Amino acid sequence: MSPVKSVTIVGAGIAGLTAALALARKGIAAHIVEQASTLAEVGAGLQLSPNASRVLAELGLLHDLERRWSEPDHIQLSSGNTLAPLASVPAGAAARARWGAPYGVLHRASLQAVLLDAVSREPSCTLVTGRRVETAEEAAAVADTDLVIAADGVWSRLRGSVPGALPARYSGNVAWRFLVPYDSAPALLNPRTVTAFLGPQAHLVAYPLADIRSFNIVAIHQQAEAPPEGWSRRGDTAAQKRLANAFSGWHAGIRELIAAADDPLVWPLFGCPDGAWTDGCKTVLIGDAAHAMTPFAAQGAAMAIEDAALLANRLAGATDLGAALRRFEAERRERVAKVRNRGAFNRFAYHARGPVALARNLVLSLRKPESLAGDFDWLYGYRTPD
User: Fold this and answer.
1) Fewer CB atoms near the end CB (10 Å): N or C, the chain?
2) How many domains does one find in the chain?
3) pTM (2 decimals)?
């Protein structure tokens, strides 16, 4: 079999655009197909931990990102009842020194704009918008390429083209997302930290978005009833009442923050179980299409970016495409499983109540910031294998 010379990528989100750039840097042409006629990234804020920013820096994007993001001094856990700090992990300059890459926060649309600009300047990349494809066969018909890469997200249509791939499932949690402008933000929102406020069966994450001069707020709570599938929607009266009830015992400042939210959007959180990611010959899933995960470790986008880098490395010069795809899947499955386990642990710890919450707080109080940072070396210090 001859080396891979070109691919078709379905989806122009973070996974698809990063994959196109990573492949182009390896001499592999990328034809991107996007169903939307205009690219407009859904969502709001995004945390780019060092394992993700390292890949983007290697693609030559760090300067453009630094002009748009901020690098928080700390990642902090605080009590949702008292606002008291529970633990802190050094970030900012400490992240660059310890993990060799920055920890940045920015609007998702800003990252997509940086990626899209880089793709538009890359001669080996082409982008077609306003074209919907639902199978690998349809994608392969778009251009005469060697491989179809499905980067079409948690609701992937192309997942059905991979035998053994499994559909997304509701996680039992919903996320409410909204923005708070700097000039109207309460004092409990710190412009120099990523803060996770913890409480029983819920938590709230807040961090600054310098590119739009607002704080990004994500309030996550457990909800047994599965909402309709799909992306964000405005919550109805009943949904907003459930949100208020989930945080009813919290500090008054947080309750007021939630009550004053301007047009909050509710996102049902779905994840993909461990199904197949490739058919071993013509199609491979990456990013959320392969392994969508809940945001308890803030690693969804980072996993997609890592996927892109490793897939490019495995395809470069490969003469046995099937072997390259199987190796990619095996390596990424091990990494993603470890990140999933961390997210599951965070979910348990963040939403703990009663004696478990008291024990959590005691353990955290005994840990020094540098010791806590060491717990993330395996995650943030990750480097894509050659």
Assistant:
1) C
2) 1
3) 0.95
